[in-house]
Amino acid sequence: MNVRAVTTPWQSAEADWLIVFVPEGADFLGSLADFDKASGGRLTRLKEAGDLTGKQAELLAIRDAQPLPAKRVLLAGIGKPAEFTPQRFERACLTAVRSVSEKKFPNVAIAAPVVEGTSASITDLVQIIATAAAVGSTGQGIYKAEPSRFPIENLTILVPSSGDGTRVEAAARRGQILGEAMNITRELVNRPAADIYPETFAQRAKELAQDFGLFCGVYDESWLKEQKMGALMAVGQGSQRPPRFVVLEYQGAGDDASWLALVGKGVTFDSGGLSLKPTDGMLTMKCDMAGAATVLGAMTAIARLKLPVNVAGYMGLVENMVSGNSYKLGDVLTARTGTTIEINNTDAEGRLVLADVLSYAVDEGAESIIDLATLTGACVVALGEDIVGAFSNNQPWCDKVLAGSKRAGEEIWQMPMHDAFNDLLKSDVADVKNTGGRPGGSITAAKFLEKFVDKKPWVHLDIAGPAFASSAKAHREGGGSGVMLRTLVEVAAHFGK
Ligand code: BES
Ligand code: MN
Ligand code: ZN
Known about the structure:
There is one protein chain. By secondary structure, the protein is an alpha/beta fold. Helices cover 35% and strands 20% of the residues. Helix 4 (122-136) links the parallel strand 5 and strand 6 (154-158). The model has no long low-confidence stretch (mean pLDDT 96). Residues 270, 288, 345, 347-350, 374-378, 380, 435, 441, 464 line the site of ligand BES.
């Protein structure tokens, strides 16, 4: 996608579609008033007829846009100015972009709205527009002969002339980079397990690292054995596809500056293993590598944005399958740390993979850690499909991650981590067992992970709900979402400050 931000007034912008935002209730101001006048009161008539209300995400297409040079205009409601938030604006943008990308219209212009009384700056709005254009016009129909969605090729963002040119350009580029990174993550999540398995995921990581100037190490089974990653290897041993471990490094600060570690669960397919999932539960389990895909996408964005920080990404890639070689219930695994784990459910595999990846990140000298995982159905029960659960051993670090998510406009809710939950993980035969039963299932999973971070500042983000949507909504496609990628980039941008 080519993106430019220009101060051309939208009345003179040429495009296949011109998207203009309309506030609810207010009189037509500025350019809207000009257009109304130039078109002989067309907007006023539409408003009087009740077709144009400006209600949040309401769309009205004008296919013959004379006297404008744009071929078509899409009027998109952004609700009452008093209720305006960046998140609501993003939804309106996404809804509008999704509507104009159902057919092949390569040239789209979007006018940044002027909203009275909002604290959102013009650069915030421009960034949101660029990200929404990239994400909203990219679909999950990767394997369709007839595409059902067409990426915008040329995006023109129209900004009021008062804006500071270079800052607006930078915001447009930032928004584009974030949107493209989310699309990398989404595509990896949307591709089925026959295409994306540990080796091909690692291959993709290598290619992207090359494109964007990241160090990338890919490690195979002999290395995993040397590392004594017994928990990760056990999960992968039932599969024909060998596991992989991927390290990405981006050094944007000095050798003496500390490292932020991003850790991702990369279960490329989760059948549940011998604790086999039923069809309904297994149906979407190609998404179980979303944590790793988000780390990979975020690393590309961090590199392209040249953030002045040191960030390492660690991804544990395995397929959880059923065979004569699968790990079994009652098995006792020895994790990389030496901790012994009794298996009472082979479907609680993500925490086993993360146990070994987290301990590796700790030993590599990470100062602070964030892990991302589609870890528990229990988290979806607790928080629903749109909110990410956060679990931490360190409140100041967790506060930084929560602050990053606020700036990124993504929703996280912090969950409790009381010591009592550890009792549920006690085993009669080993140091710990891998599940704690149904009550507090997302918390016992986090308490399990906590045992492998050696008290380093750590936040675990359970993205099981929001990482993958089984159906579409007006403002988003079904499939992979790229959730938390922007939060990671925000946290990285402020790391060490
Ligand atoms: N990958 C699943 C969790 C999941 C569920 C992700 C729904 C996305 C949507 C995970 O490996 C799993 O199976 N967890 C079990 C844990 C249980 C056996 C303790 C679960 O949530 O049922
Ligand atoms: Mn599972
Ligand atoms: Zn899983």
